[in-house]
Design brief:
The complex is a heterodimer of chains A (274) and B (378). By secondary structure, chain A is mainly α. Chain A contains 13 helices and no strands. Chain B is of the alpha+beta class and 378 residues long. Classes of the chains: A mainly alpha (274), B alpha+beta (378).
Chain lengths: 274, 378
């Protein structure tokens, strides 16, 4: 039995070793060496000078995650209360944008938000002044929310549909009005979904580079852009790029560790945890 | 009706166009242990959920101490429910589950603590206050559910097949315990079950339901000894139900003979159903009585043998502590007290002899699960 399961898992083990463990080790290797391949701490130490970029990334990522949660939770809750047939239609609608190319979606926002874009053209046609939207932090957050909100809604929806209706009834039976039912029963019981949704939005939002590049302009440089520049840009320096990646990974791990403290440590149902 | 706590009047409920209850009436007395008994789909849970406020009836009114509470939402009703699957809050521990209702009401924590510990000792779970719900067995979860409901000092406790998920032995223990709690607290219990034995052993009043209608209301002894129609006779315990003719008061003809009985008031020459309980039949020598037949099956049930006897094509069930072998010719002896006469009803003819297993028996088998499996080998 044991030998059989080991045999079955062998392809996955090999795959994970080559494509996950090995690259990670390489990143660590690059981070701690200079161009000549000698051990150095210089890369790690010089990450400090980009602390403003780190702070901006984490701040914008956190804002986008918070907005996604506040907007996504009610929608997930409403969907979970619908009839089974309408639920599947709604879930499909939530996922629909994800079928379109990420780059294309972000380009679309660019043309909407530009100073001479659709929104401003419409505003002017109505006699208002145009608003400068493109290349602002707000545009970056908008791009993040738009692109990643399905990853918030889906785990929330899956946890919310699994809440037993009789538990809700039990709370009503014990005297809780609908507000109390929601905050004392529904929200705590959907904690695993909240955690996995927050994780799945926050992590890609913090490390994105396309969104900030296209909607944020040069002024809203994020960690992703910084890393991008070290590998593909003018400032070619894979060692520094690896060091930044490593630090980012550690920061994300710490953030997730803090997040998981909100859970009672009981493995939740339906939630995808780190 | 001196002390009616709950009164359902003219209740109609339908799901998706299908009527479950129509013109339903029921009065419940303060401090009573009332059981709604019936097969699945008879509407008993619908009645309970209507009382709890989880179902808004299409028509009719619910009165609580004479006050109309039909439009009142569940959280404003002074009743509490114990749900079939306990419905405990998985994110809270035992203590917080029991404290939930009191915290909603804004009681102070010291008072809550005292009540929680009192409730825990009542359901024999002292020391479990800080366990997680998932660490508890089914029986323990059930006790927590009882404690959580009683902590709110409800006037009426609604119990929706609360023992259905427990194994046989635990179920028996909980029956005794629930009855004890009901007597201690004096709270009105409205208990829903499809288990007739449970209903008989726990209740003050049994309400037998089928097809959304009340078939009979009475004490357990009344229901068992004086079933009103063939459905009740068949559903409660085992019954041999025969076609009979009431010749006159105290005289009934069935199985080809005329018997003396204790029933009267049916008029002369009226077709009736005759019920004879298997345990009331005495087995005697074949030549010493009117009814004789051949044993076709014998099943050992522990306390007694269940003997199926073919009397001119009608298969009787007899429960006897004496063994009879298949193929034996035996006589069945009846005294007037053993014979119960019922008026014909829509159920007449649907239940009768023991030539086949009835649906009800299948249902019982499933409900009792593995325990009953042993009895099958006869």
């Amino acid at each position: 039995m044991k030998a059989k399961s080991r045999l079955l898992s062998a392809p996955y083990t090999v795959w994970m070793t080559i494509f996950i463990v090995l690259p990670m080790l390489l990143v660590a290797w690059f981070a701690f060496t200079d161009r000549a391949g000698h051990f150095t701490l210089e890369n790690i130490l010089s990450v400090g000078q980009y602390s403003n970029v780190f702070l901006r990334s984490i701040w914008l990522g956190a804002v986008a995650t918070f907005i996604s949660l506040v907007m996504g939770y009610p929608l997930a809750y409403i969907i979970s209360k619908m009839s089974a047939k309408r639920q599947s239609v709604m879930v499909m609608l939530v996922m629909l944008p994800m079928w379109m190319n990420f780059l294309l979606r972000t380009y679309a926002w660019m043309t909407l938000l530009e100073d001479n874009g659709l929104i401003n053209a419409a505003l002017r046609a109505l006699g208002f002044n145009g608003i400068h939207m493109i290349n602002t932090a707000g545009a970056v957050v908008l791009g993040m929310v738009y692109n990643y909100i399905p990853y918030m809604i889906l785990p929330l929806y899956s946890v919310l549909t699994k809440i037993d209706q009789s538990v809700i009834e039990a709370a009503e039976d014990l005297g809780a009005n609908s507000r109390q039912v929601f905050f004392k029963v529904v929200v705590p019981m959907s904690m695993p979904g909240i955690i996995s949704g927050v994780t799945m939005v926050f992590v890609p939002a913090v490390s994105t580079f396309i969104i900030s590049k296209m909607l944020g302009g040069g002024a809203n440089l994020l960690i992703g852009d910084l890393i991008d520049m070290q590998f593909l840009g003018s400032a070619y320096n894979p060692n520094l790029g690896s060091a930044i990646s490593l630090v980012l990974m550690v920061i994300i791990l710490i953030c997730m560790g803090i997040m998981n403290q909100f859970d009672d440590g009981e493995p939740g149902e339906g939630g995808v945890l780190l | 009706m001196n002390n009616t706590i709950l009164s359902l009047q003219n209740i109609a409920v339908s799901y998706g166009g299908e009527q479950v209850l129509g013109g339903f009436h029921l009065d419940i007395q303060d401090g009573e242990f009332v059981t709604l008994l019936g097969p699945s789909g008879c509407g008993k849970t619908t009645v309970l959920r209507t009382i709890g406020g989880f179902i808004q009836p299409d028509a009719g009114d619910v009165f609580f101490y004479g006050k109309n509470i039909t439009a009142l939402p569940p959280h404003k009703r002074e009743v509490n429910t114990i749900f079939q699957k306990y419905a405990l809050f998985p994110h809270l521990n035992v203590y917080d589950n029991i404290a939930f209702g009191m915290r909603i009401k804004g009681k102070n924590e010291r008072e809550i603590k005292a009540t929680v510990h009192e409730m825990l000792s009542m359901v024999n779970l002292t020391g479990y206050a800080h366990r997680g719900i998932s660490q508890l067995s089914g029986g323990q979860q059930q006790r927590v559910a009882i404690a959580r409901a009683l902590a709110n000092e409800p006037k009426v406790l609604l119990l929706d097949e609360p023992l259905g998920a427990l194994d046989l032995k635990l179920r028996k223990d909980m029956q005794v315990e629930l009855k004890k709690i009901q007597q201690q607290t004096g709270i009105t219990f409205v208990f829903v079950t499809h288990d007739q034995e449970e209903a008989l052993s726990m209740s003050d009043t049994v309400v037998v339901m089928d097809g959304g209608d009340i078939q009979q209301i009475g004490t357990p002894t009344d229901i068992y000894n004086e079933p009103k129609n063939a459905f009740v006779a068949d559903f409660i315990g085992e019954s041999n139900i025969l076609d009979g003719l009431m010749l006159e008061d105290y005289s009934v003809r069935f199985a080809g003979h005329t018997f003396q009985c204790l029933d009267k008031g049916f008029g002369k020459n009226t077709p009736v159903d005759v019920v004879i309980r298997p345990e009331d039949i005495d087995v005697v020598q074949a030549d010493s009585t009117h009814i004789t037949g051949e044993v076709t099956a014998v099943t050992f049930k522990g306390v007694h043998y269940e003997i199926i006897v073919d009397v001119a094509g009608f298969k009787w069930m007899i429960q006897s502590t004496d063994f009879r072998a298949v193929g034996d010719r035996i006589g069945l002896s009846l005294t007037p007290d053993d014979i119960h006469v019922m008026a014909k009803s829509e159920y007449s003819g649907r239940f009768g002899d023991y030539s086949t297993f009835s649906d009800e028996m299948d249902e019982d088998m499933q409900a009792a699960g593995e325990e009953e499996g042993k009895a099958d080998e006869g």
